Structure formats: structure tokens, C-alpha cells
């Protein structure tokens, strides 16, 4: 008997057939060769049954019928693709072995598993696990297939994800919809993503802009001219800064210090899907869905890139020879000149910026294949170009600079100058014909400090130097009027970044890598989540900006108001995603996970049942324009320290503070860290210390143990070490009665205390 190969989509099936059965006969819905019959699903052929297929009473939505928690989930065929399911069933009767050739990932595993379960297929299964659809890779994949049983944990994780989403979505949506008489969609991933957008919107609305002034000094030493920014507290009094300008203008100056150091900038990391979506949104204006669809076409239809739905920016040792073949394949193309300039010796297994097997799980970074691209649409060509250039940059040396830092003193006032002198363009030659990218931020750099430094730093291609021993003249002093800026509205690109790290504002790339296992959704599903929020009317697009609708705003407020803050918690949902990944690795129990999800679904219903109904008008109203926050007038005197200004909130507590009428942060308590002496104030996501710049790491996250902490509760934690008794939800989803306790006064780490 023959072996039945089940691919995920028709194109994939045909590619597989051309590689392993080139003489296979095309039977329209399958291809038959001497040893293999190759057929395909068309996406999901099998779905979880709707509630009314468990009981007729569920046809009518009623909160009295909730929660709906099936003991065993029923499977039903998708009516639109039922004919293809029948084809698979008939073909399976003629075969004694199966090959799961669906996408190599959690969702592909689920698609095959559902077909297998619904049709009751008992044949032994082999798993094809490949990262591109070139004939060579397919043949290698068939030669090294593993038993399907080795992927049983991945199947459990996929099933748990599907059933958990059904339980939360079905019960949450029906509960809120029937209570408030408006169709309200609730989901395990979509709701915390909506909450991220809501919190950013509130942060922007609460922002009050502060006018301030900067002083730019112009200096001359011989034939050299340069500019420097005055160093001191941020000034809000125009008269004082103008007096300072008059004081230094035309006066002799001296160089107080001059430092020169060599620095290198290495190529950016290879693309994973989320990074590709983010950059394509920024550079090309593509939505996350458009980038995914275009990348999928480059992979399936044109076979010019590797599997795009990856969460890794690295490759394994086995991929290094493939990278060299792909480089050779780019000869004779539009990239010929860049290929000639490439240094093959830079791409090897010991280059950990490229080859890091520990950071590759299912799939390596997105790479071009050794197939020459032709017949691409304009959009496909643009995305392919991004992938190829990022790939080529790995074969080039770092860009090299000399960093000159000059402190010039005039009339006892100091001005700082930073000049970045280009020595070698290195990998940046690949982007020399494109619009210059903004420099990436350094690890852990404060956003306001970063903005200031970008303004102060000047990049030059010609040699620069000053003589520390020679005199300098301050030829001019220019007063610049500026405003502190509110946080920016999310774009799809910046929202994807927030989803990847479960909402935490993480700039450090290593920390972001560590968060990848506990982000919101997966690289393959994030685009669909954003599209879902648009479809249900929670967000609108205003150009590239994401605008929250009145319906979206009210939905978040109702969910939080019902006492199920966990549903809106990015961190908690990130922990669920981590648990699913642990199930896939065999490190956690799917039964325990589902037990906790069922309890949480019942908790949602109980909370909503006692909630007051919202007014119909709460969901109505025009979506406001995605504009900036309120403008505030400059204060008439004094200075505002850069360290504590309204635009320089602690990183961990985010940047929008609860403020008093005069714009100053509301101080809640003295920081409990021994020897600190700072003050705690509320940011958008937590309570941080005013001495964070001096190294205080104390922060209490607002969303903790299923609750959104109040100012009073935070004061109790700081002053008494614990809250009053509360209803809490542990990280694994278990609801408990207990107190939140301050475990570590040095960091703000919290724990729980139960009776």
C-alpha cells in the first residue's frame, strides 16, 4: 500500500509532489505517484463545535445558561471545505502510512491532529519538519522524518490553546454581550491587546505638555567650528535662558575635557516574523496582515524565502552552508555588486550574532533560499528586498566610528558636543542608496535622554578634532524653544513590539529575547488579532496610527469594572503563552492548564452576572482623532530637573504619571528601599521611585495577581507590608482569597499570603 502525505495547503502539496514524486498523476484534489499519494487540507477542515451543538438551548444567548464548559469538545467539519475532507477520508482507506506535512509549527500540528481525530485515522504517522519549500530541502526532510509520537506534546499544546480560546471567548463574549445588550467580543489574546491600546490612549489624554528652553552654543577654534548643548537642569524660564545666552555669547572659552574613543556598529539581527512586520510597517506602511500574507507568498508560491512564521533571529550550524549557497544564488541578480563585496569568512558557526542554536526552536530566522526570484509583484519585491539586504549585511564588517565628546566651558557654563566621525561604512553600504535609518537606541537607554542625545550628536564623514590646550571662542548662543512630547499612538509596528513582550516596555534586546516565550499570541497569530480588533469595531486606523473607538474604550472599562482585570492583563496572558510553550516541551501539564482555564471562565461569568448594565450611549460616539496630549504653558520661573521632568518618567513605571493640578506627580509614599529616600508616584503601569536615575529599581506593577492595585493598596503595601484580604488570581490562573505582601522592599517584588 501507499503512504498518504497530508500538506496544509494545495501549493505546499504540489511542491512536495514535484520533489518526491515528479511523475505523480494530477487528480485535481490530490496527486498520486508510485509510492506516495499527496493531498492537502485547505486551512482548518475541522473546527470546534458551536455551543448549540451540545444543547439546543444555547441557540439563544442567555447569561443564565453560562458558563458553557464541555466535558469533551466536539469536532465538526468546516462546511466550506467538506468535499476535501471526504477526499482525505477515501484516500486514507487506500494507505497504510501517513505523513503529516502541514506547517512545521503549533498550528500546523493542530490542523493535522484535528483531521486525524475526526476521521479516526489509526495508521502510523511520520512528521515532515522543514523550513523552506525548495526541492532539495523537501527531499532532505523526507529522508530525516521522525515518528509523529515525538510531537505529541506539541499536539497537546495546540489542543489546549484552541480549547482555552473557545472557553474564554465563548463565555466571556456571551456574558458581556447579554449583560450589556451590545455585541462585545472578548478573547484570551485580543482583550489584553485592546487594553494596551486603551492604556496608551489614556496616557496620551492625561499628558500635559511643558514648554522648556535649550541653549545651543556655537564655538570656533582656528578653522574648526562646532556646536554644543548647555548642560544643566531643564529650563522653563525664557528670561533666564536668554540672560544665560547673553552671558556667554562672544566670550572666550576653554575645552574642559575631550575624549575620543573608537566604536563599532554591527549589522542588525536577521528577521523573525514580528521584526519583519514591525519594520515593513515603519518603512513600507504594510499592515501586519499584509506583511504576513506577502511573506507567505514568497515562501509558498515563489519559494524564495524560508518559513516566515518564525520567532527566531538566529540560525543553527546546519544553516551556515545554506546561507553561503543563497549568497552564491544572488550572483547575476540586482544584488551582484553587493554579493561581490561580501566577505564569506564572516558567516560561520562561531559567529554568535548569527549562529545561536540555543535560540532556535521550531524554525531559524527568515533567509532567502538559493532560488532566483522572478515574477514578484511590486509589494513582494519590496519585502523580498528587505529580507535580502538584511541577509547580505551579515557578510559585511561592522561600521566603524570615532566618537568625540567635547565639554566646552565658557563663563563657568558647560556645553557638551558629541561628534560621530565615520571611519568605515562597513555593512551600512548595503543601505547607502536608501533613506537613512534613525540610529537604534542603546540598551536600557532612557527615552528622554536618548532624544536629547540624538539632538546633540552630529554624524560627520570628514575628520574632526579639537586641541584641548588651545583657546576657543563662543561665537554665538541660540535659545531654542521646545515642548515635552506625549507618548505616541500605537502603529501596527509598535503594537507588535508591545505584544511580543506582553506589554513591557523593554528596550534591551537580550531581555526582549527572553520574553519571546511569554508574549501576547504567537508570530503567526498577532496579525489576525489586530485584524479582529478592527473587525469588531474596537479600533480604527487613522493613517498609520491606531485609534481607540468609543466601543473599544467602553469594553475595556466594563471588563475591568467587572473585577476580571486578568482578562485585560498582558503580563498574565503572556504567562499563559509561556505555559503553552512549556506544555509543548513536555515541561507542564495540559490537564492542569485546562482545569485552571475552566475555573477562570466560570469566574468571568460569576463577576459579569452581578455587574450593573451599561447605558446604551456608553458605546456610541465618534472615534476621536489620534492627536497629541494637552498643551501646557511654560512656568514663569525656575528650572525643572531633567531627571524628574514630566517627560522623563521611570522606564519601569512607564511615562504617564498621575499628576496634581500644577502638573507635578502625585507622591503616594516614601520609597521603602533601605537608604533610598525617594518618593513613589504612579505611572501608567506601575508605581516607581523618583530616584530611579540614581539606581533605585523599586517598582510595584499595577496589574498584580489578577487585580489592578489602587493607590490605597499600594500605600498599605509600602507602610504595612501587606494589603487587606482580597480575591486574587495566581500566575497559573488559580483564584484564591488572600493578601498581597511586599516580599522585597529593595525591588518591589510582591507575593501572596493565604490563610
Automatic annotation (TrEMBL):
Gene3D superfamilies: 3.40.50.140, Topoisomerase I, domain 2 (1.10.460.10), Topoisomerase I, domain 3 (2.70.20.10), Topoisomerase I, domain 4 (1.10.290.10). It catalyses: ATP-independent breakage of single-stranded DNA, followed by passage and rejoining. SMART domains: TOP1Ac, TOP1Bc, TOPRIM. It is an enzyme of class 5 (isomerase). Residues 2-134 form the Toprim domain. Residues 151-605 form the Topo IA-type catalytic domain. Keywords: DNA-binding, Isomerase, Magnesium, Metal-binding, Topoisomerase. PROSITE patterns: TOPO_IA_1, TOPO_IA_2, TOPRIM. This is DNA topoisomerase. Belongs to the type IA topoisomerase family. Residues 643-661 have a biased composition (Low complexity). Residues 436-462, 619-666 are annotated as: Disordered. It comes from the Bacteria. Pfam families: Topoisom_bac, Toprim. The keyword Magnesium applies. The keyword Transcription does not apply. Residues 451-460 have a biased composition (Acidic residues). Its EC number is 5.6.2.1. Residues 436-450 have a biased composition (Basic and acidic residues). The lineage of its organism: Bacteria, Bacillati, Bacillota, Bacilli, Bacillales. NCBIfam families: PRK07726.1, topB.
